[in-house]
Amino acid sequence: MRYLTSGESHGPQLTVIIEGVPANLKIDVNDINEEMFKRQGGYGRGRRMQIEKDSVEIVSGVRHGYTLGSPITLIVTNDDFKHWRKIMGADALTEEEQENMKRVITKPRPGHADLVGGMKYNHRDLRNVLERSSARETAARVAVGAVSKILLKALDINIFSRVIEIGGIKDDYEYTLEEVKANIDHNDVRCINDEVAEKMRNRIDQAKKDGDSIGGIVEVVVENMPAGIGSYVHYDRKLDGRLSQAVVSINAFKGVSFGEGFKVAEKPGSEIQDEIAYNKDIGYYRLSNHLGGFEGGMSNGMPIVINGAMKPIPTLYKPLNSVDIESKEDYKATIERSDSCAVPAASVVCEHVVAFEIAKAIMEEYQSNHIDQLQDAVKNHRNWNLNF
Ligand SMILES: Cc1cc2nc3c(=O)[nH]c(=O)nc-3n(C[C@H](O)[C@H](O)[C@H](O)COP(=O)(O)O)c2cc1C
Ligand SMILES: C=C(O[C@@H]1CC(C(=O)O)=C[C@@H](OP(=O)(O)O)[C@H]1O)C(=O)O
After folding, report:
1. In CATH, what class is 2-387?
2. Is 14 exposed, middle or buried (0-12, 13-18, 19+ CB in 10 A)?
3. 382 alpha carbon to ligand 2 midpoint, in Å?
4. Which of 177, 54, 150 is nearest to 355 (CA)?
5. Which of 131, 156, 215, 220 has CB 3.0 to 4.6 Å from 310, enough for a Cys bridge?
6. What's its catalytic activity (predicted)?
C-alpha cells in the first residue's frame, strides 16, 4: 500500500490517493468521517476548527460501498477556503490587486517551517511555506488511516489511542487494556481519567491565557497483531523502525518510543525482557509487555504499544524573537491564528499514521488481491504460529 496527499491549508481541498487496498472490502464513509471528526476536535484547538466540518468524499476506487482494488481517491473540502480565495490567488485580479491581497509573511515563527522552508524553496513570502507545512495535511492522513483501520478490523486487528500527558500533567495510572478500551474517547482531551483530564484542561487554559502553547505525550495500541510482521533481516524491513519514521513525520512530533520506552536504559534485563510462555489455545505469549510488542523488528504477538511526544505549538500569541527577512531587523514573529494545544487531535493523527504503516506491512506480508484471500492468509498464519 502507498499514498500521496496534496493540498494547501487554505486551498480548496485536500486530496489523497491510496493504492493497494484489496478488492471487496466494505467501506462505509461514515466510519471514515467518525475518525475525521475526532481529529478535528479536542480541547485547545483554535478558531479554524470551528469553521471546518471535516468530512470525506470518496471519488474513486469504491463502488456500491465496496473497494474495487483500484486506487481510492478521497477529498476533504476546506470550508475556510471561501474566506481565503483572494489571499490564495484563486480569483482573476489585476497584478496590483493580487499583490495587496497576499498577506505576505516575512517574520518567520521559531519552531515552524517558515524560515528554513523559505530558504530552501526561495519563497520570500513565507505563506508559501506555511500553506503546506501546516498540520492541515494531517486531515488527509487520518482519512488514509481510517481506511487502513477498516481493513485491519476485517482481520480482527484493533487500534486505539489516548492522551497520557499534556504540559507536564501526567496520567500515569497503570490501566489494563480492557480499562483503556472501555474509556477511549471518554472526553475532549482524550485522557481516560476524568480527574487528570480536568487538570489537563486547566493547564491548556493557563497556556492560552499566557499567550503560550504546550505539548504532550500520546499512546497508540495495536491489539491482536499476528506475530512475525516486519523482519530482522534488513534495516528497512524492521517494522518498529518504520513506525518510528511514521510517528516522527507528524507535525511537531519529536520523539517516539515502544513499551516502557527510555526506561529500558535504566532497568536491568531481568525487569525488561518479556518472559516467554505457551498455552495451547493462544500459542506463545509473554508474561509481561515491557518491550511493547516488538523483538527483532517484528511484531511478537503482544499488543504493540507506541508513545509519541509532541512539542508545544510554534505559533504564540505572545510571539518570540525573530528577524524580518526583508529588512533583516529584529522583530517579534508573525502571529497567525493558532491552536494553543493540539495534543488530543494529534493522538488521533498518531493512531492513523500507525494504522497505515501496520496495514502496509500486513499487505506486504500477505500479498492479496481481495479481502477473502487476505483473511484466509492471516488465519493460516495465526494457525501456523499457534502450532509452531
Ligand atoms: C493536529 C496538529 C495541529 C497543529 N496546529 C498548529 C497550530 O495551530 N499552529 C502552529 O503553529 N502549529 C501547529 N501544529 C504544529 C506545526 O504544524 C509544526 O510544528 C510545524 O509544521 C513544524 O514542524 P515540526 O514541529 O515537526 O518541526 C500542529 C500540529 C498538529 C499535529
Ligand atoms: C487546519 C488545521 O490545523 C492548523 C494547523 C496549523 C499549523 O500551523 O500546523 C495552523 C492552524 O491553521 P490556521 O492558520 O488555518 O488556523 C491550525 O488550525 C487542521 O488541523 O485541520
Report:
1. alpha beta
2. buried
3. 42
4. 150
5. 215
6. 5-O-(1-carboxyvinyl)-3-phosphoshikimate = chorismate + phosphate
- Tell the burial category of 302 from Cβ atoms under 10 Å away from its Cβ (0-12, 13-18, 19+): buried
Name the residue with cell 526561495. Answer: 122
Instruction: Work out whether strand 66-67 and strand 158-166 pair parallel, antiparallel, or are unpaired.
Output: unpaired
Burial class (CB in 10 A: 0-12, 13-18, 19+), 373: middle
* Residue 9 beta carbon below 6 angstroms from any ligand 1 atom: no
Q: Taking the alpha carbons of 136, 137, 138, 144 in that order, is the dihedral positive or negative?
A: positive
Is 134 annotated to bind a ligand? Reply is yes
Any idea which ligand is nearest the CA of 215?
1
120 is in an annotated binding site: no
**Residue 204 assigned to a binding site:** no
Which pLDDT tens digit goes with each residue over 73-105?
999 999 999 999 989 988 877 777 777 777 899
Edge-to-edge strand order for the sheet containing 304-310?
A: 169-170, 158-166, 216-223, 304-310, 253-258
Split at pLDDT 50, 70, 90, the class of 135 is: very high
Q: Which residues of 174-190 are buried (b: 16+ CB within 10 A; e: fewer)?
A: eeeeeebeeeeeebebb
Write the pLDDT tens digit of every residue in 320-362. Answer: 999 999 999 999 998 888 899 999 999 999 999 999 999 999 9
Distance 343 CA to ligand 2 centre (A): 13
Spans of all domains in the chain: 2-387
* Interatomic CA distance for residues 91 and 173, integer angstroms: 54
How many CB atoms within 10 Å of residue 160?
17
For the chain, report the end-to-end CA distance as a whole number of angstroms. 29
For residue 135 and ligand 1, the question of a CB distance below 6 A is answered with yes
What is the C-alpha to C-alpha distance for residues 138 and 112, in angstroms, rounded to an integer? 16
CA of 179 to the centre of ligand 1 (A): 31
